[in-house]
Amino acid sequence: MKLLYFAWLRTRIGRAEEEVDPPTDVANVEDLLRWLQGRGAGYAEALARPDLVRVAVNQEFAARDTPVARDDEVALFPPVTGG
Amino acid sequence: MAIRVQEDDFDIGAEIKALTLGRTEIGGVASFVGLVRDFVDPGAGQEPTAIRGMTLEHYPGMTEKMLSRIEDEANRRWTLDATLIIHRVGALAPGDNIVLVVCAAAHRQDALQACSFLIDWLKTQAPFWKSESTAAGEQWVKAKESDDALAARWQKT
Hints:
Largest sheet of chain A: 5 strands, mixed
CATH topology of chain A: Ubiquitin-like (UB roll)
Mean pLDDT of chain A: 97
Oligomer: heterodimer
Strand order of the largest sheet of chain B: 1-6-8-2
Helix content of chain A: 25-40%
Low-confidence stretches of chain B: none
Shape of chain A: globular
Shape of chain B: globular
Strand content of chain B: 25-35%
CATH superfamily of chain B: Molybdopterin biosynthesis MoaE subunit
Helix content of chain B: 25-40%
CATH architecture of chain B: Alpha-Beta Complex
């Protein structure tokens, strides 16, 4: 699974992207966020306020119960602030 | 219909001229230009904070996809002859252009309403993030609930 991080999620986690292989019980976005929180201090800090984290699966805005699979591109970012 | 995400500046007059050239069916052009403001909106009773500059980041791929979708939606809702969205990314200074939305139509109401819709939706749907540089350092801009409320006005019930 390809993960992308933007804005303060990128700076707190300390990387813009990575390939991960989550355990099989990571079935949806909520599971993925919980699993990521356990990957280290940067992740725990970045994901401490999950309500401020938006997720896109394959470049589509996703809900917490949106399924995620091995070959998906999943992006984590704060609410958008363009324009 | 056109969408551009770029680091370079844009020339508003030249863009509108190119969009309308030879298109004599167009009766009106509405545009919105977003600029880098030199202050942060202060909270109630607080002094504004000066901004030295801004950096814009985006999600290549998803940005273009969302902008195309927003533009398609505007063309479904209003009768438009041409639309253009240009959004800059990278390092910007106070006074610099950030975004340009142009809508051309036979009649002004279509152009004006579509332009307002496009910028409201872009602000809540397109994956761009601003980081502001102040005397206290760099800080990521927080999303505004008022922007969600403005976008929600266009929600079809």
